[in-house]
Amino acid sequence: MSIRILYFGRLKDVLGRGEETLDWAGGDSAALLAALRGRGEDWAEALAAGKVFRLVVNQQVVRGEVPIPDGAEVGILPPVTGG
Amino acid sequence: MHCHITVQQDRFDLAAEEAALRAVAGDAGALVAFQGMVRGHDAATPLAALFLEHYPGVTEAEIGRIADAAAGRWPISAVRVVHRVGRLVPGEQIVLVLVASAHRKAAFAAAEYLMDYLKTEAPFWKREDFTDGSSRWVDAKASDDAAAASWRD
User: Fold this and answer.
1) Which of B62, B95, B140 is facing A81, going by the closest CB pair?
2) Angle CA(A53)–CA(B144)–CA(B43) in degrees, nearest 5?
3) Helix crossing, B104-121 with B58-73: angle to 10°?
4) Is the dihedral of CA A7, A8, A12, A18 positive or negative?
């Protein structure tokens, strides 16, 4: 299946991309993060548990592990700093 | 409760925003306005500009959720939030929160609650661009998390 991933804030700079289309076997949000962390040290470090604030799946903020449907838009959010 | 949320690059006009709030606020005895501004000297090197980005659609929805939560705690009749994104230089406006209520205490409290949660929940990210050409993404502040957590008691 294929999903679209969006990166924000410092993740965009550290990972060198604002978005990408990913073909992967499928699974839940934890499996997706594990797959991305497996890309190398930079990825494992940037997406470490304490550094990812929240995931957004199809524009819905999710808490905990959720399934990722085929064709989903997944936003990976570092800790927010607005206001 | 009337709620209006805008994320925009342009400046906002306080008088125009206030008029829009008052048009839907009903018989409000209190109107609280908070404006956040860009500070120029937060670090050793002076700031040239802040750059803000957000997650279109998700940001507006999250602010709406925070406003609904505020309306569940205090009797407020209208909320208006404008948050700017893009490049903002020191002294410029960055955020506006307007709250109308029948009474003063509810309006003050709800405005503070909105700002506390906006800073810790709404998907915005700030990058500081300094006058020496360096830049860095701002780290989330523990003090902001503590301020938001203080409402949970």
Assistant:
1) B140
2) 100
3) 150
4) positive
Cβ A44 vs Cβ B87: under 8 Å: no
CA A30 to chain centre: 10
Q: In what order do the strands lie in the sheet with A2-7?
A: A19-23, A2-7, A73-77, A54-57, A60-62
3-state secondary structure of B36: strand
What would the pLDDT profile of B68-95 be if each residue is shown by its tens digit?
Answer: 999 999 999 999 999 999 999 999 999 9
pLDDT tens digits for range A20-66: 999 999 999 999 999 999 999 999 999 998 777 789 999 999 988 99
Q: Which of A4, A76, A81 to mutate to test the interface with B (most CBs of B within 10 A)?
A: A81
Which residues numbered 28-57 in B keep a CB inside 8 Å of some CB on A? 36, 52-55, 57
Counting every residue, how long is chain B?
153
Tell if the CB–CB gap between B125 and A10 is shorter than 8 Å: yes
Look at residues A68, A4, A3 and name the one whose alpha carbon lies nearest to residue A30.
Answer: A68
Q: How far is A10 from chain B (nearest CA, A)?
A: 6
pTM to 2 decimal places: 0.93
Cβ distance B125 to A78 less than 8 Å, yes or no, reads yes
Chain A, 19-38: which have a CB under 8 Å from a chain B CB? none
User: What ipTM, to 2 d.p.?
Assistant: 0.93
| Cβ-contact A83, B36 below 8 angstroms | yes
| Amino acid letter for position B43 | A
